[in-house]
Each structure stands twice: as structure tokens, then as C-alpha cells.
Amino acid sequence: MQQKESRRKKMPAAKREQRRRRRRRQVLIGRIAVGLSIVLAVGGGIALTLHFMPGIRVARQLDAANDYVETKAYEQAIASCEEALEIDSMSVDAYRAMAGVYLDQNDRTNAEQVLYRGWETTQDESLLQEYCVHLLNDAVADINEGNCTFDTLEKSITALEQDTESPDAYKLLDACYVRLLGPESRLFCDSEGSCLFEQYRQEMERMLAVYAAQPAQELKEEILKFAIPQSGSLELEVSHIEDYRKLLEQVAALGGSQELSQMQACLVKAMWVQERFSEAFQIFESGEFEKIRDFMQSETYVSIRDQFIAGSMEYWEGKTYIPVSREKMHLTRTEEGQWSFSFADYEEYPATQGVVNVWGAKQEDAGVQRLCISYEPAAENGEYYPHKVYEFVYLYSNVKIGNEYVPQMNYRFETRVVTPEGMTSELVGDWGGEHEWMMEY
What we know:
By secondary structure, the protein is α+β, with helices and mostly antiparallel strands. It contains 15 helices and 12 strands. A 7-stranded antiparallel beta sheet has the order 2-5-8-9-10-11-12. Strands 1-3-4 form a 3-stranded antiparallel beta sheet, covered by helices on one side. The chain has a two-stranded antiparallel sheet with strand order 6-7. Helix 10 runs antiparallel to helix 11.
């Protein structure tokens, strides 16, 4: 220790200062090296973090999707967009990019579904607006191509649900009305006989729901218009009579019209007819025809017959043999806007499960008006032949009693069978009476 102290005392002052500076520099270099290593470590971590940030990862997937689109590798492009959404399900850009890929393939349906899915997830209004624009463009394309269907109407109403003040949506509703319910339409059955009423009802209920949530005069006018087709003749399945009546009841709550009231009354009368003839169908289908005699003499049936003969029947249209069936009906509109109905007969709808025919022509025997009803059962094995007709008549005619013919009121039951070769008939006179007789020809 004394030696070291001795050497320091002997070392010149300048040299000692030089040595101190060198030590300070070494310490500073060491500190800088440590600092640099920390900075590099932190910087590397930042770079690593940036590399794995969701936004950057989504962007890379969308860049990849774009590259795939350029080479028309659409499946890979969609997969890249899906991977982007797996990274960030709230990415508006990813939904829009995926919709764009579908549009590049002219797949408008999937593009719209993606945009709507994106809006549901993100609640981003721009996606919703883009979705509505696509829907309206689709509807316009359908109409211009002459392919307007209830799917076209659905697109217009969906856009309207998002914006009840959209003038474009109302223009398209008007166009759909002309094409779907206009003078040339065959609603509610298409050219192939398929019933379209259910689609119509669903779209009407959607418009009613939109109006209930956001009342708008323009929408009210559209609902009132769509409630009554412009076509002069419609076909409707009997099973939908009550559904249509209930729908018109909802519409009438918004505001009535004479034509709307006419249609409602027409449908109510059609339901009434179905109820009154349900007993006759049960009798005929049971095969125990004897009970039809009481039905023919019932106050209801006699009144129906008399009204047709007098021409005073309201809403129900028909002459001579007036069919009642349980499958299809016609609605007919006059130029004055009045509606009437009739049911499809066997020729019009061979797939019927049976048709009852009312005799509505004036034919008297000794001052007594005849009563007549007939029944055509469902086809056997779906084939028209052999075609059967059961006819029941209550009339004033001769009955053979003993060896004499005595005129009196009696029932006649005739069974006609039509085949490609011709017709055979079995006639039972005084049917159910004590002087019953039978004849075949």
C-alpha cells in the first residue's frame, strides 16, 4: 500500500490526468454498450409486436386476397378474407373485400349476404347502405330482364325496412306491383299451377310491420294498393281464403275502400259456402248417399238454388251446374271494381278430391221446381277414366205403382260412368221409396 502510494506520488500529474480520462471513457463505452443492447432489445420487441398486430395481419390477408383475385383464384381469395375475419371479426374492410370477390364472380346473392353479415356484426352503417344499394340494383336488374318475382319484391322491401323514405324503394315497389299483381298476372297461382300466396302474404306482413314501426303515408298507399290485385282474374287455393281475409282485415285497419270491402265480403261468402257444403262432402265420401236427401231439402240448399235461379246470389258466380270444390277458386273483378268468386270444377282441376255441383237452373214439373245435386269423386289412381258422376234429383215424375204410372214427387239417383269407349248409366227411380226401380243403359 505504501509502495502504491509512493508510485502515485512519483507519477507526473499530467500522466495521472490522462489515466483518469481513459478510465472514464471505458466506463462510458460500457454504459453506452449496455444502453445500446437495451435499445436493440426493445426495438426488436417493437418490430416483433408490429409484425403480429391484428391490423397488419388483416391487411396482409386482404393483400393476399387481392393477389388471388388478379389471378382469378377466387376460392383462395375468399379463404384469405375469412382468415382476415378470424383475426378481426369487426374488420369492415374484410367484409367489403369478401363481397367484392363475390361480385367479381357475378355472385350477387353471396355478396349481399356478406355485406349484411358484416353490418349485423359491426353495425357499420356504410356496410348497410352498400347492402341496400346492391339489393335495389338487383331488383332493377330483375325487372329490366323481365324476371320480376316475389324475390324481387322481397329485395325492395328489405331495402325499405332500412330506409322508409327511400324513393328508389318505392319506385321499385310500384314496378313490382304492375308485374306481379297487374292486369296480366295470374296470382295467386303461377303458370305451372304453383301457389304463390304464401310468399305474397309474407311480404305484405313485412310491409305492415314496417308501417307499424315507422308510419309513412307513401308506405300506407303501397300496402293498400298491394292488398287488391289489379288483375281481373285470380286463382287462389281454398285453404288460403281465411289467411287472405285476415290479411285484408289488417290492411283495412289502415284505411278502407269500396273495392277492399268488396273483396273482404267476397272471401267471407266463399268461406260460408265451404262451411255449408262440408256436410255434403262428408256424406259423399262416406259412400252412404241416403243422407243427401235431407241435405237437398235443407233450408240452406233450397235458398242457394233459388238465389241462383233468381239471379240474386251475391259474390258467388255460376250458372246451371255450379261447382263447389275444396282446392282452388277463382276471383273475378269487374270493370266497376266488384269481386265475385267461383270454385274450380273437375275439368279445370282434375287433381281435385271431389266436386259437388249445385243445380241452379229453373226447371219445373207441374209447377214444382226441381232439386238437383251431383258429385264427381276424386280420380282413381290419378287417371281421368273411368270418370264417375253421381246425380241426385228430387222431381215430379211418374212412379210405377202396380201396373200404372202415377205422377208424384220422388227421388231419382243416377250413376254415370264415362270411359274412352263411351258412357254407361244406372238409374234408380223412386230412390228410397216403396216403389223403387232400376234401369241400366
